[in-house]
Amino acid sequence: MDAVDPCALLTADQRGQLKVDSFRPQTNSTEIYRGAKECAFEVSAKAPYYRYYATLVTTEGIDAWLSGKRNVDAELVSVERYPAVQYDLAGQGANAAPCTTSVDVADGQQLQVRAATSGKDFSQDQVCEMSEQAAGLALTTLKTLA
């Protein structure tokens, strides 16, 4: 995954499906994945506003999210028949906090897609569904790039 451009993970057609109107490369700034390649895909032309962040993690697999050592509510899911973990901050309940779907793409590597919204336009379940849908699209593209 080192050679993959995270902004190439969603094709023009896929960006259209997700209503993405702009995107930009960046690096992850979280303590755990600082410096990891990431792309921000934004829906900002009209409300409701939201964004997706696709991050290529090459330092650990999805097991870290299931260990119980991180402050998240996590559950094992499947994305395009790949094992994945869906998580959000612990205790968020029905509040529309960011939700991340992390797909196990290789030993010690994961494709993370986080959906984040502005305001209260979506329920937590909807935000997680958005994350999972975008992760599935990104995974489909990743299989053609890797």
TrEMBL record:
InterPro entries named in the record: DUF3558
Q: Which domain of life is it from?
A: Bacteria
What is the official name of this protein in its record? DUF3558 domain-containing protein
Biological source species: Actinokineospora globicatena
Q: What is the lineage of its organism?
A: Bacteria, Bacillati, Actinomycetota, Actinomycetes, Pseudonocardiales
